[in-house]
Amino acid sequence: MVSLKYLDDECHDGMEVRVFPYLEVLHLERLPNIEGLLKVERGEMFPCLSNLSIFNCPKLGLPCLPSLKDFSVWGCCNNELLRSISTFCSLTSLVLDGGDEGITSFPEGMFTNLTFLQTLFMELPKLKELPNEPFNLAMEHLCISGCDELVLCLYQRKFGKVYNPFDL
After folding, report:
1. Measured in Å, how far apart are the chain's first and last C-alpha atoms?
2. Is the pTM of this model over 0.70?
3. Does the residue 40 lie in any domain?
4. 5, 96, 109, 127: least buried by Cβ within 10 Å?
């Protein structure tokens, strides 16, 4: 399945693949060439999908998924994927663990439409800034971990110099 580009391709390794209109949970793992869920976006896609987790699918872009509540991404946060998050209006939980990906900031407006977001976990080692727009007032849990460059940038803004932990 390494060559899989879309879930609705007609045939993969002799096996026919169909889209599931009642699918609630989808886990995509180690699909280096997958580009999208469907070749052609049509109507209301995946109307029941409430939980989506992605692990090492670096080329994946997503359509609008209005019923999505829980979204987790490990090892493959790309800008296209991050931009699509703003369309997930029902999202309540978001996990972004980019591994060694070079995400330094979030796309403008990424969090604007996430009015139901209650839990946000971020581990993006290269992240340098948080979004300019405020987070949702419904936010109950916020975890920022392993964002070493973010801490350094915040320290520089506050104190006007580079912080070196070994200067203690």
Report:
1. 51
2. yes
3. yes
4. 109
Spatial distance between the Cα atoms of 156 and 33, rounded to a whole number of angstroms? 39
| Owning domain of residue 20 | 11-167
User: Encoding tokens for residue 78?
Assistant: 């790309």
Average pLDDT, the chain: 80
Unique residue bearing structure tokens 């896609």:
45
Structure tokens that stand for 155 in this block: 């320290």
Q: Within a domain: residue 6?
A: no
**57 near 35, Cβ under 8 Å?**
no
The helix/strand/coil state of 48 is coil
Q: Model confidence over 26-67: pLDDT tens digits?
A: 999 999 999 888 887 766 678 899 999 999 888 888 888 889
The residue to which tokens 């609705």 are assigned = 8
Taking 50 as the threshold, does the pLDDT of residue 133 lie above it?
yes
